[in-house]
Amino acid sequence: MEWKNNVFVCNLDKYFTILSGDIGNLQDTTDNSNHILTYKPNKKEISINGLQVENSNCIMESATNNRGGMFVDNINAVNDIKININQCVFKRNIASSGGAIYFNNSKSNNQYFQTFKTLFLKKILRVIQVVEQFIFLI
User: Fold this and answer.
1) Residue 113 in 3-state DSSP?
2) Domain tally for the chain?
């Protein structure tokens, strides 16, 4: 880890942050957190770098609560959104819809989602509504 051009640079291959939903008994997924990251857009752009998001469990009765590791709620948002996810790992996130990432979207224009060196292991993302407006760069 070092400073370069007034920016703190971290070797994300060596040093990363784990956000785990495993808050209870280690071998019991039923008591894990429902969501680990929630994003309700109040800014046009967000970047997530160097995180390992793991062990969420969101298998619930309510259809509005079936979201996994990251929940993006863009319903009735004022701003269009741009989400950049860089050098992250999403693994062992369980949900009946959107295990890794769940997008809840009502905006009809300028939706942008980009990943770079990001792994989605086990459950994969599911995008609902306005799918043609998302750009996936993997």
Assistant:
1) strand
2) 1
Q: Does 55 fall in a domain?
A: yes
138 lies in a domain? no
Which residues form the domain of 121?
Answer: 31-133
Q: Which of 47-51, 110-114, 121-125, 131-135 has the lowest mean pLDDT?
A: 131-135
CA distances from 112 to 58, 91, 101, 106, 107 (A): 25, 22, 14, 14, 11
CA dist 106 → 7, 25, 58, 72, 78 (Å): 36, 37, 22, 11, 11
The structure tokens listed for 52 are 């390992």
Dihedral sign for Cα atoms in the order 83, 17, 14, 123:
negative
DSSP state of 77: -
44 occurs within a structural domain: yes
Give pTM, 2 decimals: 0.70
Q: What are phi and psi of 82, to 5 degrees?
A: -135, 120
The encoded tokens of residue 81 equal 């959104």
Sheet with 126-127, strands from edge to edge, namely 37-39, 70-74, 101-105, 126-127
